[in-house]
Amino acid sequence: KLGRTTSHRKALFRNQATALFEHEQIRTTIPKCKELRRVAEKLITLAKQGDLNARRQAAKMLYGTNLHYKPSRGENPTTLDKQAVLRKLFDDIAPRYQDRNGGYTRIIRGELRKGDGTQMGYIQLV
Q1: What is the DSSP annotation of 3-41?
Q2: Residues 33-68, buried b or exposed e (16+ Cβ, 10 A)?
Q3: pLDDT band at 62 (very low <50, low <70, confident <90, very high)
């Protein structure tokens, strides 16, 4: 459970999944990589279905309850908004895995974090 409340954990994986689909690789701790893999694989499987219901379910997983997402003032304008990430997921990422039955991500172990010695890793789309 990563020492977080349920709402904090859901928000964490929502943001990390958005970053993963936007950049196709992110760096985080190994336990977070393993949990994020579950979320990302479910989202890609939904995107492979490609129908309206799957799009709405994926939007709910990515946006949470805020389906009409608007970027706040402090957000970096160069990052994609969540609707663009959803489009990228359904239009670019899902067709790549159409003939693949799971295993859409890979986890690569990295170096130990300098401050506390935690094992870091990279999760990337295959």
Answers
A1: T--HHHHHHHHHHHHHHHHHHSEEEEEHHHHHHHHHHHH
A2: bebbbebbeebbbbbbeeeeebbebbbebbbeeeee
A3: confident
Which residues are CB-contacts of 80 (< 8 A; sequence separation ≥ 6)? 22, 88
Ordered by start, the domain boundaries in the chain are 6-125
What span, in angstroms and rounded, lies between the C-alpha atoms of 109 and 111? 7
Pairing of strands 25-29, 119-125: antiparallel
CATH H-level, domain 6-125: superfamily: Ribosomal protein L17 (3.90.1030.10)
64 pLDDT above the threshold of 80: no
φ, ψ for residue 78 (rounded to 5)?
-80, -15
Which tokens belong to 118? Answer: 């935690």
Checking if the pLDDT of 9 tops 60, the result is yes
**Helices marked H in 24-100:** 30-49, 52-63, 82-88, 94-96
Question: Among residues of the chain, what percentage have pLDDT more than 70?
Answer: 87
| pTM assigned to the model | 0.83
